[in-house]
C-alpha cells in the first residue's frame, strides 16, 4: 500500500475524481474502477480519468483492458506523453508520480 494520493488544490476537480485517484493509490482497485468508469460515462473525453483507468487496469492485472484504454488515450490525444502530462498534473508526491509513470510506461504511454 502506498498511502493517500497527494494533489494540489484544483477548483475544477470533482470529489469522485479524487476518490478514484486515491482508491487507485490505496490499491482499492474495485472502487477505483467504479469511480473512473462513472467519470468516463459522464465525459468520455476525460483524459485524466482514462489515464488513471489504464493504470488501474494494468495494476489489477487486466492487461487487455489497460491496452484498450491506452488506445483510447492516444485517440483523444495522439501525441500523449506521460512525462509531459505529469508536468502539468498537480501531484505533489514524486514517488507516486514515478509509480504512475512506470505503470503507464508498460503501456507505451
Structure description:
It is a single chain. The protein has 109 residues and is mainly α. It has a single domain (15-105), classed as Tetratricopeptide repeat domain (Serine Threonine Protein Phosphatase 5, Tetratricopeptide repeat). It has 6 helices and no strands. The longest helix is centred in the first third of the chain and has 14 residues, at 29-42.
Mean pLDDT, rounded to whole units? Answer: 80
Q: Enumerate the spans where pLDDT stays under 50 for 5 or more consecutive residues.
A: 1-16
CATH architecture call: Alpha Horseshoe
Tertiary shape: globular
Measured as a percent range, the helix fraction is: 55-70%
The CATH superfamily name is Tetratricopeptide repeat domain
The rounded distance between the terminal residues' Cα atoms is 24 Å
Give the CATH class: Mainly Alpha
Number of domains: 1
- Number of discrete helical segments: 6
Work out the strand percent. Answer: under 5%
Summing up helix and strand content along with how strands pair, one would put the structural category as: mainly alpha
Order of helices and strands: HHHHHH
Q: Tell me the major beta sheet.
A: none
Strand segment tally: 0
Amino acid at each position: 500500500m502506498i498511502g493517500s494520493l497527494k494533489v494540489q488544490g484544483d477548483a475544477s476537480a470533482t470529489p469522485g475524481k479524487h476518490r478514484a485517484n486515491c482508491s487507485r493509490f490505496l490499491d482499492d482497485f474495485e472502487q477505483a474502477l467504479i469511480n473512473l468508469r462513472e467519470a468516463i460515462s459522464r465525459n468520455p473525453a476525460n483524459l485524466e480519468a482514462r489515464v488513471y483507468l489504464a493504470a488501474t487496469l494494468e495494476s489489477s492485472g487486466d492487461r487487455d483492458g489497460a491496452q484498450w484504454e491506452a488506445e483510447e488515450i492516444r485517440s483523444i490525444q495522439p501525441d500523449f506523453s506521460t512525462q509531459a502530462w505529469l508536468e502539468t498534473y498537480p501531484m505533489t508526491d514524486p514517488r507516486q508520480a514515478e509509480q504512475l509513470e512506470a505503470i503507464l510506461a508498460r503501456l507505451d504511454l
